[in-house]
From TrEMBL:
<dbReference type="GO" id="GO:0020037">
    <property type="term" value="F:heme binding"/>
</dbReference>
<dbReference type="InterPro" id="IPR036396">
    <property type="entry name" value="Cyt_P450_sf"/>
</dbReference>
<dbReference type="InterPro" id="IPR001128">
    <property type="entry name" value="Cyt_P450"/>
</dbReference>
<dbReference type="InterPro" id="IPR017972">
    <property type="entry name" value="Cyt_P450_CS"/>
</dbReference>
<keyword id="KW-0408">Iron</keyword>
<dbReference type="InterPro" id="IPR050705">
    <property type="entry name" value="Cytochrome_P450_3A"/>
</dbReference>
<dbReference type="GO" id="GO:0008395">
    <property type="term" value="F:steroid hydroxylase activity"/>
</dbReference>
<dbReference type="InterPro" id="IPR002401">
    <property type="entry name" value="Cyt_P450_E_grp-I"/>
</dbReference>
<comment type="function">
    <text>Cytochromes P450 are a group of heme-thiolate monooxygenases. They oxidize a variety of structurally unrelated compounds, including steroids, fatty acids, and xenobiotics.</text>
</comment>
<protein>
    <recommendedName>
        <fullName>Cytochrome P450</fullName>
    </recommendedName>
</protein>
<keyword id="KW-0349">Heme</keyword>
<dbReference type="GO" id="GO:0005506">
    <property type="term" value="F:iron ion binding"/>
</dbReference>
<comment type="similarity">
    <text>Belongs to the cytochrome P450 family.</text>
</comment>
<keyword id="KW-0560">Oxidoreductase</keyword>
<keyword id="KW-0479">Metal-binding</keyword>
<dbReference type="Pfam" id="PF00067">
    <property type="entry name" value="p450"/>
</dbReference>
<keyword id="KW-0503">Monooxygenase</keyword>
Amino acid sequence: MYIGSVVVVAYFWRLRQAYEFFKRLNIPGPPPILFFGNFLELIKSKRLSISMKQWTEKYGRIFGYFEGHTPILVISDPDILQDVFIKSFSNFHSRRSFPLADQNAKLVNMFSASGLRWKRQRFIINPTFSSAKLKQMTPLINRSINMLMKKMSEQYNKGQPFDIYAYYKRFTMDTIWSCAFGLDTDMQNNINNPYLIHSQQLFGEKVNVRLIVLIALFINELNKFWRKIHLSIGAISYWCRHYIPITKRFINEDPPTWIMKQAYKIIEKHQKVGQTNRTDLLQLMFESASDEELIQDSRATDITNEETEIEPPLIRKLTKHEIVSNIFLFMIAGYETTSTALSYITYILATHPNEQQKLQHEIDTHFNPETEDDMPSYDTVSQIEYLDMFIRETLRLYPIAPVVVNRQSSEDFHIKGIGTIPAGTRIAVDMYSLHYDPDLWGPVDPHIFYPERFETKRHAMAWIPFGAGPRNCVG
């Protein structure tokens, strides 16, 4: 009993010390509550990005808040962000680590990998998204688009309101599996397709997972323990479903586990079939496949601080586990984000008839009336400048995943007017404050939808819905 009391007192004393982090640096921010940090305020707002914007308005472009007792430095000063994401990238090459994540695990993808492991994976996957490769994928994309337009026509003819978001989700998933992984799923016609069902379940609420993540967030000193509990729950559920069939009635199969199992099957199938002529992400990863279970990365040179170049690593291979993890990554990264972006674009089209008419006119000028039913080529779409500005302006107003754009310092770094920030500090971006900043986006009110604002060159960090620098969104 005595030892337990001492441990509790010592732990809460440690929390008190942790909450002095920003005070020692003279950085303002919302006052934390013992153990919870600023989590209760986040619950009230329901969205972290909204809370960040409110705190920026109150405390300025540099402030700090706490997730549990973990300090998060929030920045919306574009010059400082340019230093973090681009100029000093060698010090900020990794994203912040998340609860339950294990950097040394076999199943680590490009999003969560750090250091040389990230560099190796990024170097191999980068070429998939070159103009040349995307042009070769155009027929596959057009096939998915044709099916979507057929579905839209069917719904229009019914003369009844319908949820277009559901159709965008099926279209997006259909395109991802076809273009990236060479799997013809026909999800737009088959709403009971298991790939679609498990993908949708992945974004559903799982109370047990959310609970463990929260506990790991508040008591991160025991992250390895929480990770083992999380893995044990998954293993027990799998064992029960596999060996006690009756449990399938009330224990659902874990969506990430199911998707990764399918990914392993795809790899096994490819190993039997061999080389194919398809141009997709999966083929590119297969060409760099290694038989090793885990690759020990070696340093060729320091991680580059150039914005557009990634120096080649010594080892240019992926393990089968990394291939599986990246299949999972591209599925979840592309599914919800793309379908949501399409929904926002549709909303803007419906609520801004003048801009819609201008966009239609711009598109019409790039088509020959005699072949207007033909699908546009990659080059033709690239030449429609107003379409590009229209999409960019939509994503400025409605960034899809603002909270995933973050970094973690590997060394101490200096901020002018603030001082030296310790190594390991987690840095978040208040994207809404950036995207709605009148100094960055004037003279037209940033709250007004105005695509033409992109005709003016802006600050490099004014628009970052996909991040910035070498570690921006690869797709």
